User: Fold these one by one.
Assistant:
Number 1:
Amino acid sequence: MEAPDLEANASSSGKFDAGKHLRSAVWYFFTRSTEVVGTSKCTICSDVVKHANNTSNLLKDLKLKQPAQHKEAENQRKKEEKKASKRRKTADNLR
């Protein structure tokens, strides 16, 4: 299965258009399980991964099993981090 194009899903505001803003790009590769609380299913290989309502285990699983998609998610995280930093600097300058 081909990974989703993260850039194609971004709106002009830099947020992803998926109903609401996803705080981590890892959610483009996992879906939350409705059967077992605290687990998510990889949309690439269908593995089920346990998580404690955070993305650490999901990112580790992605890094080990899908390195190209992990790199894509990390690049998106870095872009979002830079945008947030710029917004904070702008807000600080307005004070």
Number 2:
Amino acid sequence: MYNTLEFRYKVEKRFSSKLASWLSGKERRTSSCLSRTYEPPKKDELKQVFDKFDINEDGKICRNDLKQHFASFKNGNMGDHVTKMVEAADFDEDGVINFIDFKELHKKGISEQEIRSAFRMYDLDADGKISAKDLQEVLHRLGEKYSNLECVIMIANADCDGDGKVDVEDFMIMMTKTLKMLP
């Protein structure tokens, strides 16, 4: 359950970094499809994501922060899941997720099932693919403003088969570049 935090981070960071790379001409579209080599995120990237979840800016992610953050999703009623997420990520057992907990959480592995679950959060029309429209809507719900063209570019950078959408396999490849897979 705690991996929802990681998924949100990964998708936001991966799409944002892919867009920046593509716009600057430093990365070819197909490079993201070639391997699943693990690339750990930088500490400052994790801090930026942590700060997005820390709604009240007190240096801790509490249940209310998570509830507010996930309220924008189509499955916004996540009460029990939020409690389980905090319990799973609260390594020092103080009832909240601090940045040390958040970093530790990221070091954990992730299963294929959890990645597939995250994929479904972004596949708004449940057609088995994340379109630029799906991505733009999710990012908008998260308070991020991207144009349709920017979302098309982000999708193109994660789209390995060239169909203009990110299917679950494309998503797996993108996600496992910065997430360790559990055996």
Number 3:
Amino acid sequence: MIKPLVKQLSQIFKQLCVWECQVKVVFDSLVVSPAGIFHPILLPRLYPPLFTLYALHNEKADEHYWERLLKWNKQSDVALLAFLGVNPKFWPFPSAPSSPDLNQNSHKAVEPNVAANFLWTMDDLFPLFQYVVVRARIRHLGSEIHLVQDLMEPHLENGELGIMFTTLKVTLTYPLLVSYPLV
């Protein structure tokens, strides 16, 4: 039973490789890989049991992360922004917000504080990104990151996407490393 399945899969891969070469010739900028074709087909069916395995594997770290997130999310926006070290000129309100939470148009309040030619550095971006991830309250972020990392194609690890993914991974580890409580 397994041998015919393996034989069929190997034939499909051979056909994909031939098709990939033809596509690369016709569409110079399009990169087709077996993973790029199979992920949309297989992942919808495999994701629930696969994610369950990843969640079980990362259960202890995810639980510690979730406990820290619950503590941090009890804080007001001002307290959390200050704790994470976000530069006050990026806060969507002067020093004290008019409402307890940020509204949907908060980016419009930040724009006047930042010049049009402002160069964003990771020192400015990381605390803001950390704030967004904390407020998003993603319960099994560690499991999600682990799953994506295992399924990600190597060419995506470099460049802008690689930097974004690395930033997300660091955002996960930061709450686990901070040992002092948020007051």
